[in-house]
Every structure is written in structure tokens, then in C-alpha cells.
Amino acid sequence: MSSGPTSGRDLSVYIHVPFCAVRCGYCDFNTYTATELGGGGSQAEYPRNAMREMDLTLAADRDAGYDYDRVSTVFFGGGTPTLLPADDLVAMLDHLRTLIPLADDAEVTTEANPDSVTRASLSRLASGGITRVSFGMQSAVPSVLRTLDRTHDPERVPQAVAWAREAGLSVSLDLIYGTPGETLADVETSVKSALACDVDHMSAYSLIIEGNTAMARQLRRGELEAPDPDDMADKYELVDDLAMADGLSWYEVSNWARTEDQRSRHNLAYWRGGDWWGIGPGAHRHRDGMRSWNLKHPSRYAAAMTDGSLPVADSELLSVEDRLLERIMLELRIVDGLSVDEVPEETRPQLAVHRDRGHLDADALDAGRAVLTRQGRLLADAVIRDLVP
After folding, report:
1. pLDDT, tens digit (0-9, with 9 covering 90-100), for 342-351
2. CB proximity list for 75: less than 8 A, separation 6 or greater
3. What are the CA-CA distances from residue 93 to residues 78, 219, 263 (Å)?
4. Does the reported pTM lie above 0.90?
5. Spatial contact of 278 and 284, defined as CB atoms under 8 Å apart
6. Rounded CA gap, 227 and 349, in Å?
7. Class of domain 9-271
């Protein structure tokens, strides 16, 4: 339920840059290669359109009685944001700060592929206000990268990380485990390679093969073998063991950081139900229980900007029940866990059941928090289902 117009809140801003050099076979994101874009929505005009959407979004929020004191986090995602010139990303950030001040300690992240940056571009991003880069490493094993249709050379990763460090940027590396044909030894190679870069943060996501992707079609044709759940669990435990041995701690089921300050504050804003703008084609936004999402195709998005209208495709006001469901789903996945008081009374007995099964930390539960153990992290979806009425 909406609490009504407000001011004084922190805001997070997600800017979706929907361009990729190559479409990866596993990817189900709203991304496009240059050859897929006809009739508008080009990379060259994108920054101008994104800045126009910021103007329109701020006006709409203010008309509804909402205002924000500061932007606490910004995240350029995609796609591959660094396919745009560094000056374009900086220009969008500069425009945003003319509308709402950036907090003095604002976290400003861009995603990047290791082969989409140079020493000069990373230096420009850092001088322009970006504070953090998240590289899509995915794997250090060439055969796995080929299966994923990734284009970079594994040796490019430590080079890109070194350039980012030289520029003063905090660095995260993103891995994917469970690729068809990937062995436990392959995962070990990839994680050790990532940790050898002395990264501040690491994400490791299990591969989910969505139904409308090229990889899903390969599975249906029998060209690839579907991931085995037990094998995926073994790989997750290996990732966690190696990360902990190197001094990183989990703070969300798929994310590890070297210190609490190096956790992704932008993603934590999502997981804790904060307010955020979603700028760009297909981007989602959230304001006090109201969620909306933009037109997906860049050409339709660009046409809306030409007309001077918000590019919103649709919206919904989350019910009290939906907001509770989301809170359980998201907060239970983070290391702080979920307050027992947030669990509906009718499902609260399940907390003791999962504690006894080793899925919830007994000491934390005694202190009023539902916090997943490592075994619980492997079965997080099952625990969540039992806590939802």
C-alpha cells in the first residue's frame, strides 16, 4: 500500500543501455546488436533520449508530490554500456546530477565486457564520476566461453582489472556456473582466476536457460545437456569455499564482497525495496509500491522521446500481499535476513521446521532474524515458498 507523497528519500537510478556487440546464446535480457536496430533507437541518439526521459520522470514525480534529496546509487546496465563512448556515460551522469544531487559517497557503477574498455576509457569514466566497474567475466575457460558465445580472451580480464585499478575504480567480476559441459575443475579455474585479480566483489550466478534463447533451442535439439541440480549445488559450494578462503564473505546468495563497504549498494536498494528510476528501453522503476516499465524496443522508446511523452508501457500498484511476498523473497536472500515479525503468523511455524533441517541459522532465529545457512542458500526457493501464505 502506498504511503502517499513524500520527500527526503534517497533514490537509486538504473540506466539501461540495450546495446551489445554480439547476442550471447544464454541471454534473455532486453538487448540488441546494431544490425537488429532499424527505424530509430540508435546508439548515437540514445544518450540524448535517456536524458530527456530523466527530465520527464522528474516532472512526473514532482507532479505526483514525490521528490528526492539525493541520488545514492547509479547503475549503468545492459547490454554493454561501455559500447557507448565514455563521454556519453559521463554526460548522462552529469545530466542526472543537474536534476537531483548525487550523494557525496554515491556509488556509480557501470557494467562492462573485458573487451569493451581501454585504459583511456576507464580513466575517463573514473574522472567523470563513475566509482565502480562490474566486468562480465563469466568464465576463465575458453571452451566454456565459446559455449556461452562470449567474445573476450580470458587473458583480457586481468588486464582490464589492472586498468580499472589504475583509474581508481572499485572492481567486481561476474561469473556464471553450470554451463553445459563445464566441469567442477573448470569452475575452480574460473573462480581462482577471478580471485587472483584481488577483486573487491564477486558475483556467481547459476546458469538459467530461458525458453526463448538460442541455448534453449540447442537443448531442445539435444546439442547441449541440461545442468544437473546436484552438480550445480556442488559448484555453488566450491565458489563459496574459494571466496571465503580468499577473504570474501557472502552478503546475498549469489554475491560476495571483501568488506561491507564493497557490497553493491545499488543491488541492496532493490533487495530492500527502495525507490529507483529505470531509464531506457524496457527498464523498470519502483516508487513506494508502484512499479512501471518502459517500452522495450529502442525504436519505440525513441519515438516516445521524440513525442515528449514518458515511454511507459504499463504499471501496477503492488498489493499488500504482493509487497509482503517480495519482501520475503528478497530479504531472505541477504545476509541480514528477514525479521521474524515480517513472516505471516500462519507460516511462522515453518521457521522452526527449517531451523531443524539446517536451513536457517539457529542463533539468528533466537535473535528474531531468519538468516539462511549455506545449506539454506542452496534451497532458498523452497524456504521462501514455505514462508509465503
Report:
1. 999 999 999 9
2. 12, 13, 14, 15, 108, 109, 110, 111, 266
3. 16, 41, 21
4. yes
5. yes
6. 34
7. alpha beta
